[in-house]
Specification:
By secondary structure, the chain is α/β, with parallel strands linked by helices. The protein contains three helices and nine strands; from the N terminus they run αββαββββαβββ. The strands form three sheets. Strands 1-2-5-4-3 form a five-stranded mixed β-sheet. The protein has a two-stranded parallel ribbon with strand order 6-7. Helix 3 (about 105-115) links the parallel strand 6 (about 95) and strand 7 (about 120).
């Protein structure tokens, strides 16, 4: 733990105002970085601190916060046998610099963060969706994204092609029965009719002997 604290202090000292804070929790070091300084920070961690491996880039959505999104980077140093987490905040509609020039593996990770959260990465050579379809609307991992989505696709036999249309739910899927079957649901669940045939069953308690 003391080694991680020393590493955090060293990184903050070397990068100055780029590092707004660092924390130690559950044996892990997290560095908070200003979004405008993310590229300089990554260059320092890669070259000076020997964090040569980018493990992951992901996002977190905080809808009520002014800077709505966290962009989170996980790095690994094999020589030090240490992992580090780098976090930065990005507002909706704002872009953050791509780190592909430092970590080429960031290419697909950044596209996934764009696809799921709508955070664009400036100077990315191929900034387009990677998991959803080309005609997909919205960003699925945002907390305000509806569970049903916005559009659905199907094959139209008359047009002989796949078509997009607004999501439509038939009425039977709009009516939900939240009553527990153990609290006296009015309908008989499949299999319950067998209870009446049990030799020791009574109307009050199927498991009670007469």
């Amino acid at each position: 733990m003391s080694d991680l604290n020393a590493l955090g202090e060293s990184i903050k000292s070397a990068l100055g105002g780029a590092v707004t804070n660092f924390t130690l929790a559950r044996g892990e070091l997290t560095i908070d970085v200003a979004a405008a300084e993310i590229l300089r920070t990554m260059v320092h961690l890669h070259n000076a601190c020997d964090f040569k491996i980018l493990v992951d880039v992901c996002g977190v959505d905080w809808p009520q916060r002014a800077k709505r999104f966290d962009v989170v980077y996980h790095l690994l140093s094999l020589t030090k046998n240490v992992r580090i987490r780098v976090k930065t905040q990005v507002g909706e509609g704002e872009a953050i610099a791509s780190i592909i020039g430092v970590y080429p593996a960031a290419g697909w990770f950044e596209r996934e963060a764009f696809d799921m959260y709508g955070v664009p990465f400036a100077d990315h050579p191929d900034m387009r969706r990677i998991l959803t379809d080309y005609g997909f609307s919205g960003y699925p991992l945002r907390k305000d994204f509806p569970l049903t989505g916005y559009v659905e696709l199907r094959y139209d036999d008359e047009l002989k092609r796949v078509v997009y249309q607004p999501v439509q739910l038939v009425q039977e899927f709009r009516d939900f029965d939240f009553m527990s079957p153990w609290e006296g649901a009015p309908h008989i669940l499949p299999g319950d009719e067998k209870v009446a045939l049990a030799p020791n069953a009574t109307s009050g308690d199927p498991g009670k002997k007469p």
